[in-house]
Amino acid sequence: MTGLEIKNLSVNIHDKEIIKNFSLKVPKGEIHAVMGPNGTGKSTLSYSIMGHPAYHPTQGEILLNDQIINDWSPDQRSQAGLFLAMQYPVAVPGVSVANFLRTAMNIRRKAANPSDKGIPIPEFRKILKEKMAYLKMDPSFSSRYLNDGFSGGEKKRAEVLQMAMLKPEIAILDEIDSGLDIDALRIVAEGINTLAQENQMGILIITHYQRLLDYIKPDVVHIMMDGHIVLSGKSELALELEEKGYDWIRQEQPLP
Amino acid sequence: MEKSQDIQLKGIGDSDYQYGFQDPDVSVFKTREGLDEDVVRQISAMKGEPEWMLDYRLKGLKHFQQRPMPSWGPDLSDLDLDHLIYYVRPSEKSEKSWDEVPDTIKNTFDKLGIPEAEQKFLAGVGAQYESEMVYHSIQEHLEKMGVIFLSIEDGLRQYPDLFRKYFGTVVPFTDNKFAALNSAVWSGGSFVYIPKGVHVDLPLQAYFRLNIANIGQFERSLIIADEGSQVHYVEGCTAPQYTTNSFHSGVIEIIVGKNARVRYSTIQNWSTNVYNLVTQRAKVFENGTMEWVDSNLGSKITMKYPSCYLMEEGAHGEILSMAFAGKGQIQDAGSKMVHFAPNTSSKVTSKSISKNGGRSSYRGLVKIMPKAVNAKANVVCDALILHGQSQSDTYPTMEIDQQKVSVGHEASVSKIGEEQLFYLMSRGLSEEDATTMVVSGFIEPLVKELPMEYAVEMNRLIQIQMTGAVG
Predict the structure, then answer these.
(1) What is the CATH number of the domain that holds A239?
(2) Which of A113, B11, B118, B237 makes the best surface tag, with the fewest CB within 10 Å?
(3) Tens digits of per-residue pLDDT, A8-45?
(4) Closest Cα of chain B to A43: distance in Å?
């Protein structure tokens, strides 16, 4: 299958099992949402898929375009087309957004073609300007140091900007709506929708609240509790969940 | 990150130092090993100096012999002062044209890119090889405006009164043991005078090269910026890698006149067998500004604390200091700011990086004298540790003898975090690229103060030093 597939994945943190026998398929071109209460393992899931070294699978497989990537480093996963927009992006003082993005793009180009000389600067500037414009970002943003002193909303936009520049095949958006006011949420969501269509991207939205899904319509909604998916359905499931709350699921789905 | 435990970043402290090539010994004269009065007299005689200078040297020697080794700071017990050669004359004289410089020496500077840089973006160049300046030249229009840029020996010969007025007034021979040693055996360095109101737009550069093993290089520079003038002086240093130690101990004296502005930038990249113990100080007069941009990448042990004596009202001093210590290296760097007068201000920004067991320290003093009403001083020290076994220390000292002042000190130590690396790697950067990016960002505040050509060079040096196998 072209896209992301997770088969029977279990992940421990400090010897405690957080992800439990988790399975999910996100084909390219589809939007999936994983919803769940706090502490249910959603962020652990996103880190595990991206290959954070502290999150080792104890069983199961993560596949990207039919290749098992369990042992791949985060940079290998990134270069193969995976992207994670993080809930808490880390600051890198002294490195401008533009400089960082150009480095990241050039590394990809070089991996694809070892004799590549890097993206010409005028071309890079043009693309960056274009992407920043549709995320309604001030041009001066690109010369600021990456995530350094950014507001919550700026960090989220910067994550989506990176996604727009790096054009992944599969993007995981971990609580991309937190810290965004309603206007910013709309802009970011529109940006994501455009990218998804342009690139036939597969998207895995990880979110606590339903409100993001008013703007980005998922093909499938999954409810995650206690480390695995307990219920999947069409986008209406999110609305039902919003109305009835997670307790409804708890009653419906006796936990193992 | 688990595997970062065994990252082996090459470069600093490793064997792929790119300036480590050696040339044959082409010297025309050397003093014998070791130091005594005869050696000092011999050096003075070779230079045909006036009597007062010989006396000064002998006083320096006496003070050096009497003064104990410093009891603080890095361990210097491996520094074998008895078997060093204190003076090596590489050629007959300092030339104004590269064509006159002996071939072997000229080739070395060609390899280091000095004549090329001179043509492209420098106002003047001095090049020192072993103990003497072999080349010294400045753009003609500056010479016509009265700018003096000579080897220190030519300065003494051609401008004896100006020289004597200032020599030893900023760093007296009694200042410390190594300043005393330098006062006894100094050789080479620059004599710079910028006349009133003259702005030298392009940098003047001095380049120091040690070639043969077991020698000491004791350059001495005197820079005088007269009222309202401006100048930027840059020094660079390299040497071949030997298994035995060499020694570099310079003294730099700077006078910053009323409303004048001097910037002194160092890119110290000695090979890792060189002891680098340097005394650099500026006296800053009314509303003058002195800026030290000090980057220490090479050497075995560096002890270096550029300082500003803020002598008159409104004088301002700044130090941007960067030290990078790799395997087996100790960078004991820092600063000294002494406020003598009212409304003086100083700012210290120190960035230190330690990797593969290297040690880098910030050692600094801010001293506010009783008369310095409304003095402002601010010190910020950041340390970045790349590997667990590396070390970073901060020794800040504040001596404040006036109530009405504003003094700030901040210090931070960080390790390159797992989260930072994961973040960058999740964008496709390898662990090495990610680490290099964090280091480049860390020193960005310093690099952006360098002229473009040096900033590019500095980024290149950092990249070379970070290159190597990871995990």
Answers:
(1) 3.40.50.300
(2) A113
(3) 999 998 889 999 999 999 999 999 999 998 889 999 99
(4) 14
**Same structural domain, A231 and A114:** no
**Which residue range is the domain that position A124 belongs to?**
93-149
Q: pLDDT value at position A32?
A: 96
Share of chain B above pLDDT 90, in %: 60
How large is the ipTM? 0.95
**Residue A119 forms contact with B (CB below 8 Å):** no
How close does chain B come to A76, measured CA to CA in Å? Answer: 7
Please judge whether A74 and B426 are an interchain contact, meaning their C-beta atoms are less than 8 angstroms apart.
yes
Distance (Å, whole) CA B256 – CA B35 = 34
- Regarding whether A72 and A13 lie in a shared domain, the answer is yes
Closest CB to A92 among B424, B426, B445: B424
Pick from A2-6, A241-245, B238-242: least confident:
B238-242
How close B351 comes to chain A (CA, Å)? 12
A76 in the same domain as A105: no
- Average of per-residue pLDDT values in chain B: 89
Q: What is the CA radius of gyration of chain B?
A: 22
Q: Which tens digits make up the pLDDT trace of B47-80? A: 999 999 999 999 999 999 999 999 889 999 989 8
Give the pLDDT mean for A230-247.
Answer: 87
Residues A26, A84: one domain? Answer: yes
Is A163 within the bounds of a domain? no
Q: Is B466 on the interface with A (CB under 8 A)?
A: no
- Residue B119: its pLDDT value, please? 84
The number of C-beta contacts closer than 8 angstroms across A and B is 79
CA closest to A84 among chain B residues: B426
Q: For the sheet containing A31-35, what is the strand order?
A: A82-85, A170-174, A202-207, A31-35, A220-225, A228-233
Going by C-alpha positions, the residue among B368, B314, B319, B365 that lies closest to residue B344 is: B314
**What are the DSSP E strand ranges found in A183-244?**
202-207, 220-225, 228-233
- Find the helix or strand (DSSP H, E) in which A171 lies: strand A170-174
Per the CB < 8 Å rule, is B429 touching A104?
Answer: yes
> Which residues of chain A have a CB within 8 Å of the CB of B3?
53
Interchain proximity B423–A51, CB inside 8 Å? no
B144 touching A (Cβ < 8 Å): no
Alpha helical stretches, state H, B47-187: 51-66, 103-111, 114-121, 140-144, 152-158, 160-166, 177-185
Contact A95 B441 (CB under 8 A): yes
Segments of chain B with pLDDT less than 50: 1-15, 469-471
Supply the pLDDT for residue B14. 45
